[in-house]
Write a structure and sequence with these properties.
Layout (H helix, E strand, L loop, with lengths): L5 E7 L3 H12 L4 E4 L7 H4 L3 E2 L2 E2 L4 E2 L3 H19 L4 E10 L2 H11 L8 E3 L15 E10 L1 H14 L3 E2 L8 E4 L2 E4 L2 E8 L19 E9 L8 E3 L3 E6 L2 E5 L3 E2 L8 H14 L5 E10 L8 E4 L6 E5 L5 H18 L16
Parallel strand pairs: 1-2, 1-12, 2-9, 6-14, 12-20
Antiparallel strand pairs: 3-8, 4-5, 6-8, 7-8, 10-11, 11-12, 13-16, 13-17, 13-18, 14-15, 15-16, 19-20
Helix pairs in contact: 1-7, 3-7
Length: 353
C-alpha cells in the first residue's frame, strides 16, 4: 500500500545534520518524515566527534566558538536526557608542540585574555607517557567528544518506532514542486530539506553551491592496558573509544573517486602511527567516508532562491559535532519564522562554482 501521508517537512538524510534538524523541528510541533538509505559509509557514521576549541598551526579559536560550544553541550545533554544515554563528554586534548617556536606561540596564546578556559600548560604526559613519543613540549585544550554514531543509531530507532523513517535513496525523478509544497510519489510536504552530506554536490537544485568534498580514512586500533582519557593530537590524532580502542585519523583525499578504504590511506595512517607510538598495537578496523566540506569551510543553510519549498542543511565538514546543533536550531527558526541566518552560512550569500 502506497504511503500517502502529508507532513510539514520531508528531510533527506539522517546523518548528524538530518538528525538534529528533525529533532528541533519536532520539538516545535512540526510533522517530519525522514528519507534515508542507512548509508554506513556516511561521514557522520565514522566521525570521532571531536570538538577542538583551538585549531591550526597558528592556534586560533574555532569559528563562533563562544556560541557553538555551550549550545552543543546543552543540545547533546537534552538528547541524553531524552534517550537515557550519554552522547557528549568533556575531554581534554593533549596537543604536542614540536619546537621552541611552537611553544612560544602557544604560551603567547595562553596569556591572552579569555583563553584560560580553553587552554593550559601541561608538563604531565599522564596516560600517554611510555605509550607515545614526546615532542618538544605539550599543552592541553579543554575539548569534548561526541558519540555521533550512537546518537544517529538511537535516533534512527526512535524514528522507526514512530514510522517516521523511509529506508530508501532519494529518487529526484519522483519529486514534483508545486506552489507552496512538494510531492514525492504519493507523499506531500510543505517543505523538503536536503541533508545529504557529500551527495549534495549531485543534487540538481543545490549542486551550484561551492562544495569541496574530501575523503577521509581512519583506523580503529587496540592498545592494550592503556585506558587513556585524553585525546592525543600528535602527528596524527588518537581519540579514545573505550576498552583500549582508539580512533586514529585522518588523511584527506581531495576529488575522491569513491568512498572506499584504500591501501594508500591505510599506509599513510600506519606511517604516522609508527612516528607516534612506542608500543605495538592491533588494527581492528579500517573505515572511509567522504566529508561534505565546502570551499570556504562554512555550512550551507537556507531556502532555494527559485523554489522556496526546497531547503538545504549541508557542508558541516570535519567540525560537524560542534556546528550541527547550533545551525540546526538556526535553520529550524529560519524555516518556521523567517529568522535571519548567519550571513556566512546563508546560501543567498554564497558564490556559485
Amino acid at each position: 500500500m502506497e504511503d500517502t501521508r502529508k507532513v510539514d517537512f520531508l528531510i533527506v538524510g539522517q546523518g548528524l545534520a538530518g538528525t538534529l534538524l528533525s529533532y528541533f523541528l519536532r520539538k516545535e510541533g512540526q510533522s517530519v518524515l525522514v528519507i534515508d538509505a542507512n548509508h554506513q559509509s556516511s561521514s557522520s557514521a565514522i566521525a570521532a566527534g571531536i570538538i577542538n576549541p583551538i585549531t591550526g598551526y597558528r592556534f586560533v579559536k574555532s569559528w563562533l566558538l563562544e556560541d557553538l560550544l555551550p549550545f552543543a553541550k546543552e543540545t547533546y545533554g537534552d538528547l541524553a536526557d531524552q534517550f537515557g544515554q550519554t552522547f557528549f563528554q568533556e575531554r581534554e586534548v593533549l596537543r604536542i608542540l614540536f619546537s621552541a617556536g611552537e611553544e612560544n606561540d602557544w604560551l603567547a596564546r595562553t596569556a591572552q585574555e579569555g583563553w584560560s578556559k580553553y587552554v593550559k600548560d601541561s608538563e604531565d604526559w599522564q596516560e600517554w607517557e611510555g605509550v607515545a613519543f614526546p615532542g618538544f613540549s605539550q599543552g592541553v585544550l579543554y575539548g569534548a567528544q561526541v558519540d555521533v554514531g550512537a546518537l544517529i543509531k538511537v535516533y534512527q530507532k526512535e524514528l522507526l518506532s514512530q514510522k517516521l523513517l523511509i529506508d530508501e535513496s532519494m529518487d529526484f525523478d519522483k519529486l514534483q514542486i508545486t506552489e507552496g509544497q512538494v510531492q514525492y510519489g504519493n507523499l506531500s510536504a510543505q517543505n523538503i530539506v536536503f541533508c545529504e552530506g557529500h551527495q549534495g554536490q549531485k543534487n540538481p537544485w543545490f549542486s551550484y553551491l561551492p562544495f569541496e568534498v574530501a575523503k577521509g580514512e581512519v583506523l580503529v586500533i587496540k592498545l592494550d592496558k592503556t585506558q587513556a582519557k585524553r585525546i592525543l593530537k600528535h602527528k596524527i590524532i588518537l581519540a579514545p573509544l573505550g576498552e583500549d580502542l582508539y580512533w586514529v585519523g585522518s588523511n584527506y583525499e581531495h576529488k575522491p573517486k569513491d568512498d572506499l578504504p584504500s591501501d594508500r590511506g591505510r599506509d599513510f595512517i600506519l606511517k604516522k602511527l609508527q612516528q607516534v607510538l612506542k608500543i605495538p598495537f592491533q588494527e581492528i578496523d579500517h573505515l572511509a567516508a567522504i566529508r561534505p566540506a565546502t570551499f570556504d569551510r562554512r555550512p550551507f543553510l537556507g531556502r532555494h532562491p527559485q523554489y522556496p519549498a526546497l531547503a538545504i542543511f549541508n557542508g558541516l565538514g570535519a567540525k560537524g559535532s560542534s556546528l550541527a546543533p547550533y545551525f540546526a536550531k538556526q535553520l529550524c527558526d529560519h524555516l518556521l519564522s523567517g529568522k535571519a541566518l548567519h550571513p556566512e552560512v546563508d546560501i543567498a550569500n554564497r558564490q556559485k562554482k
